[in-house]
């Protein structure tokens, strides 16, 4: 009798022990089974990494050390053997491509994925467990996790035109996305306010178009005042960032803004714009910021740009924008009008569609697919393999999915983190005041009349950080990004039925904000330190 009471007591205490160890993982995994016990890191600690992950070894080693304070002995191999931690790719695993299994037991830590990206996702979960508030340094609790994403595409866009973020800042940004199992970095490289990617065949794009201020071409300043301001990424920089991201399981999609938002282009090569005298303003108040669709030579320039860009980015998509084009430029332009008459068009959306169809032919030639903002659907048919970034609202994404296009849901009303987070904070206001709770409330596939087949066209979610307001203080970029991107990561990864704000908020405030701080992110706190 006494013995059974004792056993019961031990059993109960082990239960409460298990319950006490909150792992606070973000995004929430599909399944987590904890059991009593700890794996204590031995000294020296040995890690084996699958050859398929060999490019990621430095990253795994460095981030593990940073997180745990331990310098492990790392080797390449295929077996857990006598090692303490193994990171192995196993093609036969019955899991979606980016899924992983993570098991911590008396024999060590086993991270398995069907692909290298899967293993890297498991690695991020392990790092989070090591840094959960309730987990003691130097050990990790026994657990079995099986996990995979809800959506294939979990992206984030950073506007590096309105403000220029240097290469190191971009790499940091990529690190923080990787920590949240995001897998696409959408790099907004060109806009009215600066062209940021070196194009060797068109040197003035960066010699002139990457700079604003005294003595430079007149580009809108956005906070840089009367100082010379600017910068760009050389092709070597781009390759370095792309490789850095790939090691962390992230694909980089370049965005080249055409035909609107192109003041930096026309400031460098004025002949690209329409030959008109009218000063027609874009939504943002810029003039001369539209490519002339009737100028045949422009398609050769676009060929050069797309050829060079395609060679730098291995990702399958190039984003060619198409948003907010002031088509009135074409209505006043003799060449555009001549083209319109020749093609028998009756409105300027058809001209826009003509432009995109020609650009898509070029993109095809370089074996890429196009992504575009939802306006690209106007004016006629486009290539059926076009991906649509639906930014103007959920209904635009639904329309795109219904038409059969693969679609990324990124409605400004929920996923634009340039929006202010409260009435008193800095940021845009046009779409919504978006605090973390509102950001978290976004559901990419709401109860709509999308059929199951149409729902499959919604391949993912994305956030966007436009940078008009990111000029001061220096780290407002981080303040705007986190923890809203932490919320986005859960929308993109975790099961719809697991979504719960109170639960997320608990994990965030109990452990995750501390993790963000450890990564060096100047995030927005609760309650906020107003900016
Ligand atoms: C709309 S979203 C834009 C950007 C602005 C942003 C500000 C989109 C495709 N175009 O040019 O920066 O709003 O929120």
From TrEMBL:
What range(s) does the Beta-hexosaminidase bacterial type N-terminal domain occupy?
A: 23-148
Q: Which domain of life is it from?
A: Bacteria
Please list the reactions this protein catalyses: Hydrolysis of terminal non-reducing N-acetyl-D-hexosamine residues in N-acetyl-beta-D-hexosaminides
**What are the Glycoside hydrolase family 20 catalytic domain coordinates in residue numbering?**
151-495
Enzymatic class? hydrolase
Q: Does the keyword Signal apply?
A: yes
Where does the UniProt annotation place the signal sequence? 1-20
Task: Report the EC number(s), separated by commas if there are several.
Answer: 3.2.1.52
Say if the entry is tagged with keyword Ribonucleoprotein: no
Q: Please provide the record's keywords in A-Z order.
A: Glycosidase, Hydrolase, Signal
Similarity comment text for this entry: Belongs to the glycosyl hydrolase 20 family.
Q: Write the protein's name.
A: beta-N-acetylhexosaminidase
Q: Which organism is it from?
A: Flavobacterium tagetis
């Amino acid at each position: 009798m006494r013995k059974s009471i004792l056993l019961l007591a031990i059993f109960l205490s082990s239960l409460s022990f298990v319950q006490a160890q909150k792992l606070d993982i973000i995004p929430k995994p599909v399944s987590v089974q904890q059991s009593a016990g700890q794996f204590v890191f031995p000294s020296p600690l040995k890690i084996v990494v699958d050859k398929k992950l060999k490019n990621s070894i430095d990253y795994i080693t460095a981030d593990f050390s940073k997180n745990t304070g331990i310098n492990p002995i790392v080797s390449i191999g295929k077996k857990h053997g006598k090692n303490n931690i193994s990171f192995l790719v196993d093609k036969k695993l019955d899991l979606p491509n980016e899924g992983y299994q993570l098991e911590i037991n008396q024999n060590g830590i086993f991270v398995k994925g069907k692909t290298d990206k899967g293993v890297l996702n498991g690695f991020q979960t392990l790092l989070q467990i090591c840094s959960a508030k309730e987990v003691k340094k130097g050990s990790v609790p026994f657990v079995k996790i099986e996990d995979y994403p809800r959506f294939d595409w979990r992206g984030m866009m950073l506007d590096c035109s309105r403000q220029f973020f240097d290469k190191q800042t971009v790499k940091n940004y990529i690190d923080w996305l990787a920590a949240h199992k995001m897998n696409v970095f959408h790099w907004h490289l060109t806009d009215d306010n600066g062209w940021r990617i070196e194009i060797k065949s068109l040197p003035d794009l960066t010699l002139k178009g990457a700079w604003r201020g005294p003595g430079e071409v007149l580009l809108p300043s956005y906070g840089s005042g009367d100082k010379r301001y600017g910068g760009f990424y050389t092709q070597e920089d781009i390759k370095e960032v792309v490789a850095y991201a790939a090691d962390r399981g992230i694909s980089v999609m370049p965005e080249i803004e055409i035909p609107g938002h192109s003041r930096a282009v026309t400031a460098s090569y004025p002949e690209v714009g329409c030959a008109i005298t009218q000063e027609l303003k874009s939504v943002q108040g810029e003039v001369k910021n539209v490519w002339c669709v009737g100028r045949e030579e422009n398609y050769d320039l676009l060929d050069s740009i797309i050829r060079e860009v395609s060679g730098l980015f291995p990702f399958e998509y190039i984003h060619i924008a198409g948003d907010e084009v002031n088509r009135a430029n074409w209505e006043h332009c003799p060449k555009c009008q001549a083209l319109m008459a020749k093609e028998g068009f009756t409105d300027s959306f058809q001209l826009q569609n003509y432009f995109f169809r020609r650009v898509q032919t070029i993109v095809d030639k370089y074996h890429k697919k196009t992504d575009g903002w939802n306006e690209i659907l106007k004016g006629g048919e486009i290539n059926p393999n076009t991906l649509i970034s639906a930014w103007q609202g959920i209904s635009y994404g639904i329309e795109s999915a219904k038409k059969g296009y693969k679609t990324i849901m990124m409605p400004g009303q929920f996923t634009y983190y340039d929006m202010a987070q409260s009435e008193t904070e800095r940021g845009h206001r046009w779409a919504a005041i978006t605090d973390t709770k509102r950001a978290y409330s976004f559901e990419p596939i709401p109860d709509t009349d999308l059929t199951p087949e149409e729902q499959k066209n919604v391949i993912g979610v994305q956030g966007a950080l436009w940078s008009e307001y990111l000029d001061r203080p220096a780290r407002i970029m981080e303040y705007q990004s986190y923890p809203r991107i932490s919320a986005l990561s859960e929308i993109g990864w975790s099961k719809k039925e697991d979504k719960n704000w109170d639960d997320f908020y608990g994990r965030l405030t109990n452990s995750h904000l501390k993790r963000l701080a450890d990564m060096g992110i100047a995030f927005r706190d609760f309650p906020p330190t107003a900016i």
